[in-house]
Amino acid sequence: MELKYKDITERIIGSSFEVHKFLGNGFQEVIYQRALAWEMRQANLDFSREIEQDIFYKDLPKPIGTRRADFVVEEKVLVELKAIKELEDVHLAQALNYLKAYKLEVGLLINFGSKSLTFKRLVL
Known about the structure:
By secondary structure, the protein is of the alpha+beta class.
């Protein structure tokens, strides 16, 4: 079975490995975010950074808050970065909630904080 947006996610993951190979672990998330933005430009990926998205609850007419995902790539793939020792279920839940809020089907949760780069592919 062919993965949805495989070409885009492969290029994002490749860019992420390039960043991790150069920087290693131990930096703040914003450092990885800036480096990844540079790498994704090199990979000819179009993206938006930290776009604010309203969060709605049931039938309430006004949003109850907002969220910002790290990247939305090619208007199709949400990318959430972490720089922590280990990804936990709460980080997965957060990324899945972002997918719902942004009305996207595919996301990547990428962690630069461990010795080796780790990532999870998320599909709604």
